What does this fold into?
Amino acid sequence: MKIAVGSKNPVKIKAVEYTLQEARIQGSFMSIDAPSNVSEMPFSDEETMQGAINRAEYCLKHMEADVAIGLEGGVMETPFGLFLCNWGALAENGKTTLLAGGARIKLPDEIAVNLRAGEELGPLMDIYSRRENVRSKEGAIGIFTNGMVNRDELFIHIMKLLIGQKGDWFK
Ligand SMILES: O=c1[nH]c(=O)c2ncn([C@@H]3O[C@H](COP(=O)(O)OP(=O)(O)OP(=O)(O)O)[C@@H](O)[C@H]3O)c2[nH]1
It folds into this structure.
C-alpha cells in the first residue's frame, strides 16, 4: 500500500509513520507539501476540517497513492475562549473520506488576542515560548501542557482514530 501525507512538517509525517507501524500496516510512505486551500490560520472546526480534506484530496490527485492523509491545525472560537483544534482526513479513491479530530485546549488570552487580530499561531508560539519552530516539535499543546501532551501525540491520536475506522485493514 502506498501512503501519502499532505505535509512536509516532520511532526505530522512521523505521527503517520509511527501509527501505521504500530498497527502493523505495511506500506511505503511519501509526503508532499499539499496546499490546504483554507486560511493560513483556520479559524473554525469546519475550516480546519476542510483544510485536512483538501490536503488529502490533493495527495490523491497528484501522487500515486492508495491512501492519502491530510492533517491540519487551527483554532476555534467558543463562548469560553479560543481553543486549539486539529483535524485529520483519510482519503482513498472511490471511498468516503474519513475524519477525526484531536484534543483541544484553551489558548491563553494573550495568544488569543493576537490570533483574533490576524496573526498566525506558529510564529506567535515561537515568540511566546522563546523557542524555534514549535509547530514542528512540541506544538502549542506541548507548550501549554508543559510537555504532558505534545503535538506528535495529538496527531498520533488522530491517526489512531482514522485508521481504527478502517475495518478492512484489520481482517
Ligand atoms: O506551534 C503551533 N502548534 C500547534 O499546535 C499548532 N496548530 C496549528 N498551528 C499553526 O496554525 C497554522 C495552521 O496549521 P497547519 O497545521 O496547517 O500548519 P503547519 O505549519 O503546522 O504544518 P504544515 O502546513 O507544514 O503541514 C500554522 O501557522 C501553524 O503553525 C500550530 N502552531
